[in-house]
Design a protein that fits this description.
Strand order of the largest sheet: 2-1-3-4
Largest sheet: 4 strands, antiparallel
Shape: elongated
Structural class: alpha+beta
Oligomer: single chain
């Protein structure tokens, strides 16, 4: 069982999707990241290009906030590295 979560700077922001399939959960992860990128672009659309470039988070940074957790029978643990979607840098939360 896999659980896709969106994290924030202070912990879990949203429980996004639950699936038995790693393929499905990775597809959903891509969908949620694309949606978040679209929302960020909409938020910053009225700003100057220079300001947007400086302040809007990159796709890589946005994807770092989505974590795939796997149920081991007792608890959920991060499965990002196992599934090849590790964050670009260590995320301490």
């Amino acid at each position: 069982m896999y659980l896709l979560i969106e994290t924030g700077d202070e912990g879990i922001e949203d429980l996004c999707y639950l699936s038995d399939s790693s393929v499905v959960i990775l597809d959903k992860r891509k969908e949620f990241i694309a949606k978040k990128i679209s929302l960020e672009a909409e938020l910053w659309k009225n700003e100057s290009p220079e300001f947007r470039e400086e302040r809007m988070p990159s796709e890589e940074r946005i994807s770092d906030y989505f974590c795939v957790q796997q149920w081991d029978g007792e608890k959920f643990n991060c499965a990002c590295s196992k599934l090849g979607v590790s964050p670009s840098s260590q995320m301490l939360r």
